[in-house]
Structure formats: C-alpha cells, structure tokens
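The data layer described in this paper is built around a simple, fixed record for each protein. Such a record has a labelled line for the sequence and another for the backbone structure tokens. For reference, a complete record is included directly beneath this paragraph.
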Amino acid sequence: MPRLDQPKRGEPVRKTPITGYLLAMSWSPQHCANVRSPRDARDRFQCAGENGRFGWVLHGLWPETDSRDYPQWCRPAKIVPQPVLRQHLCMTPSAQLLQHEWAKHGTCMSPHPAAYFRSAAILFRAVRFPDMAALAARPQTAGSIRRAFAASNQGVTLPMIAVTTDRQGWLKEVRLCLGPRMRPQRCKPFQVGARDARTVRVRPIPKD
C-alpha cells in the first residue's frame, strides 16, 4: 500500500483555473537506469524485470493554466483504493506514484480517484508510440523524437509535443499538450521542453 502524499514544506496549495492539461509519458528504461536499486520496494514492480520490461508508462495527467502556476494539492487526499491501484499498475507501475499523482494533480480535477485515473487511462491508451528500438539504434534530436510521435498519431503536430531529457541528453519523457476538452493543442512556450536541435539518446529496453 502507498503512504499518504502531502505537499513538501513551502510547496503551496494552488486552486488556479484549469485551461488545459499535460499528458506526461515516461520512458521506463531511463527511469530504471537511474534508480538506486531495481529491487527497492518503490521501484521493484517497474524495474526488477519480474513483471516484464516496461517501455512507455504514464507519469501523470496534469491540469494546467496559462502560466507556470498550475493547480496542485487542491484537497486533502485519502489513500487510493486498492482496486483502483491494481487496475492502473500496468499504466503507471508504481503504487506510490499513483498516490502522488492523485494527491497533487487529480484532486484538482475530480472528487474521485477512479474518475481521474479513468480519464488518464483513456488518453494514454489513445497514444500510438513510434518504434523505439529504431530510435534507440542511432542518435536522435528532440525534433526527430517529436516528428516520430507526430507521424504515429493522426491529428497531432510538432508544436503539440514536448520532449524532456536528463542532463546527459537521455530521453526522459514525452508530453502531449491538451486543451480544456482534453484534445491535443499547441504547447505554451513554458511547456515546450528541449529545443528541436537538442541531441537526444534513447536507452533501449533491456533484453533479459
């Protein structure tokens, strides 16, 4: 079971109006390459290989506003019910991360965790992912990652896609910018992430 998740000291409660959303998707091989131990309780389900090897997973569905002051921690959050956690562990393979996403972001969108994660799952399952083995086989740029995602998803254009990397240039996340009706829209300047020319390396999924 996850523990209750609360704002860190100095982290404000913000109930700013929602004007859009971000669907943040993490490249699991990169996350697992950076954990202290794949068998630590927090990361074991995702990274130890006992449940297969994950590729793209959902970090979260985040409500956004027209500035960096996005809504967060809108209400005190109880522990997410076990049936809801189990239902979504293959999408977000960490019970603690599911709890965190509900507490920080979901409470600003819905009174019920099941409804929040249902919306997130519908959006995540609608995404078509490019051939990551091919992208991992040679150096990429943030622009080429964007192009691969746009080519795989009808109606999604380059300005709707944000790419994030770590300091060494490894691909961490791809984020899809969404409008108030949860349809893809152009990212705001502060959402863009890595610029097109940024060199990006893609870590392959480990072979057991």
Observations:
- Strands lie at 20-27, 56-64, 140-141, 161-165, 171-178, 199-200.
- The two ends are 28 Å apart (CA to CA).
- Residues 140 and 200 are 5 Å apart (CA to CA).
- The chain has one domain: 20-200.
